[in-house]
C-alpha cells in the first residue's frame, strides 16, 4: 500500500493572491500562527500597528485583552487584564498612548503601553439614553464574550431588527465601536452598537459635536461599526448592517455615500493615498483620495471576511476575521 500524506505546511508553502485591476495582494493566512496554542481561538476583532510594525491585537478574552505581535508575527506579550469588559477598537494616540474603545463599559480608556490607566473618555458603565434595549446585546453574550460565531450569525437578522429599537441619537456613549484621530489631534468616535452617532472631541477630551441618525441612507446608521479619518481629515464610517460607507467633513457634513455592491463594511483604515474598507461578507474595497472606488477584491464568504482592518507603515494590511475563521486570529495582505 502506498502511504500518501498531505503537506503539513501547506498554508506556508502555497500562495494565495487577490487581484482587482492594477491592485494585487498576497494573503498570508498564518501570520498569527506563532501565538501560543492556548490563545489560538481568542477571537480578535481588530488591531493597530506602531511605528516599528508591532501589531496590537484586540482580544475577546477579558484576561488578555491586548496581545502584541512583532512585525513578523511572533508573540511578544499580552496585557490589560481587569481593564475591559468588551474591547472593540484600539488606536495609538498622538501622545503615544493607546486609546481603547470598550463597548461593554460604554467608555474609551486611554492607557500606557505598560497597561496603566491614564484617563477615561465617557463615564464608566453609564450608557447614554437612546431608547436602545440592552437585552438585545446581552442575549448574544456569555460571560463578557459573544457566545459563539454560529449563535451570533444565526441571530443576525433578529439582531438587526431589534437594533431598530434605537429611538434617537444621544451623546457619548452607548456601546461605542471605534475611534480615530485627525491631523489636529481631535478625536472621533463611532458610537454604534447602542447609538447611531459620531462624536467629535477636542484633543483634550472635550465633546465638540455629535451627529448622525438611526435609520438608513446618507448620514443615517443601522450599526456604525468602524471609523477612520483620512489624510484629508475626512471622517469615514462603515455602517455594517446598512452595507454602506459614509464620508463626512470633520464638522459632520456628508460628502459621499457608498452603497450597493458592498458586503457589510465592518472595518476601515487608510494611508496617504487610499482608504481600505474591509467587509464582513468577504472582500476589500479601496478608495482613492478623490473618494473614488478603485478596486474591490474577494467574493461572498471567501477567506477575506473582515471584522476589523489595520495597516503598517508599508501599507501591508491585516485582516481580523474574528469568529469567521477560528484559528486565524489575524491574516496579512501584502501588496505585490
Brief synopsis:
By secondary structure, the chain is mainly beta. It has helices at 10-13, 135-138, 149-154, 156-163, and strands at 16-20, 23-28, 47-49, 55-58, 66-69, 75-79, 87-92, 98-102, 107-111, 117-121, 141-142, 145-146, 178-181, 187-191, 197-201, 207-211, 213-214, 220-221, 224-229, 235-239, 244-248, 254-259, 265-270, 274-279, 283-288, 293-297, 308-311, 317-320, 331-335.
Give an overview in words.
It is a single chain. The protein is mainly β and 336 residues long. The protein has a single domain, classed as Neuraminidase (6 Propeller). The protein is 7% helix and 40% strand. The protein has four helices and 29 strands. It has helices at residues 10-13, 135-138, 149-154, 156-163, and strands at residues 16-20, 23-28, 47-49, 55-58, 66-69, 75-79, 87-92, 98-102, 107-111, 117-121, 141-142, 145-146, 178-181, 187-191, 197-201, 207-211, 213-214, 220-221, 224-229, 235-239, 244-248, 254-259, 265-270, 274-279, 283-288, 293-297, 308-311, 317-320, 331-335. The longest helix is centred in the middle third of the chain and has 8 residues, at 156-163. The radius of gyration is 19 Å and the shape is globular.
Helices and strands in order, then pairings?
Layout: H1 10-13, E1 16-20, E2 23-28, E3 47-49, E4 55-58, E5 66-69, E6 75-79, E7 87-92, E8 98-102, E9 107-111, E10 117-121, H2 135-138, E11 141-142, E12 145-146, H3 149-154, H4 156-163, E13 178-181, E14 187-191, E15 197-201, E16 207-211, E17 213-214, E18 220-221, E19 224-229, E20 235-239, E21 244-248, E22 254-259, E23 265-270, E24 274-279, E25 283-288, E26 293-297, E27 308-311, E28 317-320, E29 331-335
Parallel strand pairs: 17-18
Antiparallel strand pairs: 1-2, 2-29, 3-4, 4-5, 5-6, 7-8, 8-9, 9-10, 11-12, 13-14, 14-15, 15-16, 19-20, 20-21, 21-22, 23-24, 24-25, 25-26, 27-28, 28-29
Amino acid at each position: 500500500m502506498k502511504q500518501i500524506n498531505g503537506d503539513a505546511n501547506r498554508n506556508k508553502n502555497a500562495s494565495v493572491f487577490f487581484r482587482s485591476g492594477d491592485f494585487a495582494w498576497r494573503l498570508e493566512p498564518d501570520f498569527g500562527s506563532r501565538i501560543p496554542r492556548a490563545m489560538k481561538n481568542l477571537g480578535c476583532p481588530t488591531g493597530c500597528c506602531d511605528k516599528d510594525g508591532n501589531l496590537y491585537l484586540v482580544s475577546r478574552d477579558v484576561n488578555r485583552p491586548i496581545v502584541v505581535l512583532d512585525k513578523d508575527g511572533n508573540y511578544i506579550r499580552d496585557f490589560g487584564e481587569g481593564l475591559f469588559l468588551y474591547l472593540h477598537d484600539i488606536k495609538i494616540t498622538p501622545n503615544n498612548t493607546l486609546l481603547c474603545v470598550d463597548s461593554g463599559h460604554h467608555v474609551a480608556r486611554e492607557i500606557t503601553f505598560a497597561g496603566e490607566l491614564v484617563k477615561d473618555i465617557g463615564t464608566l458603565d453609564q450608557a447614554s439614553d437612546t431608547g436602545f434595549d440592552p437585552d438585545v446585546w446581552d442575549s448574544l453574550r456569555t460571560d463578557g464574550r459573544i457566545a459563539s460565531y454560529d449563535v451570533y450569525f444565526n441571530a443576525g437578522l433578529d439582531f438587526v431588527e431589534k437594533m431598530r429599537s434605537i429611538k434617537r441619537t444621544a451623546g457619548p456613549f452607548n456601546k461605542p465601536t471605534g475611534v480615530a484621530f485627525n491631523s489636529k489631534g481631535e478625536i472621533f468616535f463611532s458610537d454604534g452598537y447602542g447609538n447611531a452617532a459620531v462624536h467629535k472631541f477636542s484633543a483634550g477630551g472635550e465633546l465638540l459635536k455629535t451627529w448622525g441618525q438611526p435609520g438608513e441612507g446618507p448620514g443615517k446608521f443601522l450599526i456604525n461599526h468602524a471609523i477612520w479619518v483620512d489624510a484629508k481629515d475626512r471622517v469615514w464610517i462603515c455602517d455594517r448592517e446598512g452595507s454602506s460607507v459614509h464620508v463626512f467633513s470633520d464638522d459632520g457634513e456628508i460628502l459621499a455615500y457608498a452603497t450597493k455592491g458592498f458586503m457589510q463594511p465592518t472595518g476601515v483604515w487608510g494611508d496617504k493615498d487610499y482608504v481600505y474598507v474591509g467587509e464582513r461578507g468577504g472582500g476589500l474595497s479601496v478608495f482613492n483620495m478623490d473618494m473614488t472606488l478603485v478596486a474591490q477584491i474577494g467574493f461572498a464568504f471567501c477567506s477575506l471576511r473582515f471584522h476589523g482592518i489595520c495597516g503598517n507603515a508599508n501599507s501591508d494590511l491585516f485582516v481580523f476575521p474574528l469568529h469567521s475563521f477560528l484559528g486565524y486570529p489575524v491574516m496579512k495582505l501584502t501588496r505585490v
